[in-house]
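Worked example 3 (structure in, sequence out).
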């Protein structure tokens, strides 16, 4: 499994519509609106890295209103305190 965190920038006022669209994608485990440099943070999970690339290019980045994305692949996590 490949776990990743996706940081997203969206056009002003598009945070809620983009969050709703992202939340419909099966590989998205959570999506939250944030303040600061990025407007949303999503936790995603795919079977392979290639599937992560397809998820990003064909599904997430295709959502209207997204202006920028940064994908961080998780390499390690705390087993008891982290959903990854």
């Amino acid at each position: 499994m490949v776990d990743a965190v996706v940081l997203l920038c969206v056009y002003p006022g598009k945070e809620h519509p983009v969050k709703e669209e992202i939340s419909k994608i099966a590989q998205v485990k959570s999506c939250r609106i944030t303040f600061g440099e990025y407007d949303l943070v999503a936790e995603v999970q795919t079977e392979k890295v290639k599937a992560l690339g397809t998820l990003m290019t064909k599904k997430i980045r295709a959502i209207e209103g997204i202006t920028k994305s940064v994908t961080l692949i998780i390499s390690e996590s705390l087993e008891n305190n982290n959903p990854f």
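Notes: The beta strands are 2-10, 28-33, 40-46, 66-73. Helices lie at 15-23, 49-60.
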